[in-house]
Amino acid sequence: MTHQAAEVAKRRTFAIISHPDAGKTTITEKLLLMGKAIAVAGTVKSRKSDRHATSDWMEMEKQRGISITTSVMQFPYRDHMVNLLDTPGHEDFSEDTYRTLTAVDSALMVLDGGKGVEPRTIALMDVCRLRDTPIVSFINKLDRDIRDPIELLDEIEAVLKIKAAPITWPIGCYRDFKGVYHLADDYIIVYTAGHGHERTETKIIEKLDSDEARAHLGDEYDRFVDQLELVQGACHEFNQQEFLDGQLTPVFFGTALGNFGVDHVLDAVVDWAPKPLARVANERTVEPVEDKFTGFVFKIQANMDPKHRDRIAFMRICSGKYEKGMKMRHVRTGKDVRIGDALTFFSSEREQLEEAFAGDIIGLHNHGTIQIGDTFTEGEALGFTGIPHFAPELFRRVRLRDPLKSKQLRQGLQQLAEEGATQVFFPERSNDIILGAVGVLQFDVVASRLKEEYKVECSYEPITVYSARWIDCSDKKKLEEFSNKAVENLAIDGGGHLTYLAPTRVNLALMEERWPDVKFRATREHH
Ligand code: G4P
């Protein structure tokens, strides 16, 4: 195996999907503890600010330094290199989250054992299913009272439409939580409370049918053995191929707070989850072990210092190798750029890496030229696909406080739209500016960033738009006819695309029926 192929094979790139409060932050911390990226848990600043009311957003902005370095975390585990991508924690399901999930090869689903499958879990699983992303599951908070584990697995299967294969099975919960039993390999991993903040030795009891196991389970022993019979009869067995196809999820139990079980899921990611996968571009499929460098930008984030308007573009490497100082072609602009100061996210006592491979994420300093979805290569004209915009569901008309600032407003909105913070529409028939968002928090974020970064104050007015659809039509004449008829509801979006702003659901349905040659698209690929 070449050095490059070996490096690719070592990599695992994944994200955590969960409903707020299920324990994502706590698990992230424990993962970093295991990757020796931090010595003691509790040192990672919680990203709870995301959850606060919108008035706290400026405070959030001040803390961006933290969220930037934690939005991608790279650490070694066993003989592997793990890239953990943080999915944004906004209250609203955001496009950013979706795009982050396009940059991973697998995901870790975390459920609160007391609650089970929650709304955000469902939304995120829907996104994962679009690409059949393999999912490892972790049922958290076993140190509390949890729901019947069998019922939880049934819920995963029924609601999320994925087979659930328990790998471990919990022995009690809350004060009686005694650890987990490994179903296939017949051993108990013993839980001892009070070691949540450090790496500890794992205590194992070989074989359930042993005196030691009987002593450990005490009065619960017989009931547990009975339950296991039921579980083994009723549950799916783990199957590697079904897991890789996104049809089956291995399920683990534990407590992130108690630092128990998180290592089992990390082992599962390393042992079972795929190494960096091939990526589809418009022109061809790109293999991770190809010599030449390729990558795509899936996220742009404002930097710590809003005054400089410096932003970081996060790029997933799809093939080849990044080396400090290398030259890359920015395919959309056709320009060659030398990249000497890309950020890598190796978060350990060891030194920063100077090279990166497929599966890794690097951060490029962006002064407004890089857009989400952009592809970089060593010269080949490639465009990676699958990083779409979504039709927004919420709309506001922007009202400018100082009319003389309309140029700054347009410029600001254009840039924020490029970054993916909002979508902007310019109606054909008026001078209005309409903002579209997938989640309501986005509007406040945009207003406060316009004020801080562009010195423009604006407010919002309600507007009756039900949804937006990107218009596509190969028949020029039909398109013209349609454009004339529908002009009142047509707009150009921030990327220059013709968009239909439907006032109501009924109107949209009618228009789609009336204009069968016109495509009303709910998603749009970048470029
Ligand atoms: P999130 O990022 O998914 O939103 O969840 P986070 O890790 O912040 O966890 C949400 C709450 O659940 C936190 O409590 C956290 O301490 C708690 N938690 C996480 N894992 C476990 C677990 O295994 N057992 C128990 N009992 N609690 C767990 P909080 O009170 O909201 O915050 P904090 O003030 O304790 O940090």
UniProtKB/TrEMBL annotation:
Any GO CC annotation of this UniProt entry: cytosol
Cross-referenced Gene3D superfamilies: P-loop containing nucleotide triphosphate hydrolases, Peptide chain release factor 3, domain III
Record localization: Cytoplasm
Chief site of localization: cytoplasm
Start and end residues of each Tr-type G domain: 9-277
Residues the entry annotates as binding GTP: 18-25, 86-90, 140-143
InterPro entries (alphabetical): EF-G-like_DII, EFG_III/V, G_TR_CS, P-loop_NTPase, PrfC, RF3_C, RF3_dom_3_sf, RF3_GTP-bd
GO biological process entries: regulation of translational termination
MF (Gene Ontology): GTP binding; GTPase activity; guanosine tetraphosphate binding; translation release factor activity, codon nonspecific; translation release factor activity, codon specific
Keywords: Cytoplasm, GTP-binding, Nucleotide-binding, Protein biosynthesis
Segments crossing the lipid bilayer: none
Classification via NCBIfam families: prfC, PRK00741.1, small_GTP
Similarity comment text for this entry: Belongs to the TRAFAC class translation factor GTPase superfamily. Classic translation factor GTPase family. PrfC subfamily.
Functional summary from the UniProt entry: Increases the formation of ribosomal termination complexes and stimulates activities of RF-1 and RF-2. It binds guanine nucleotides and has strong preference for UGA stop codons. It may interact directly with the ribosome. The stimulation of RF-1 and RF-2 is significantly reduced by GTP and GDP, but not by GMP.
Protein name: Peptide chain release factor 3
Source organism: Pseudomonas salomonii
Lineage: Bacteria, Pseudomonadati, Pseudomonadota, Gammaproteobacteria, Pseudomonadales
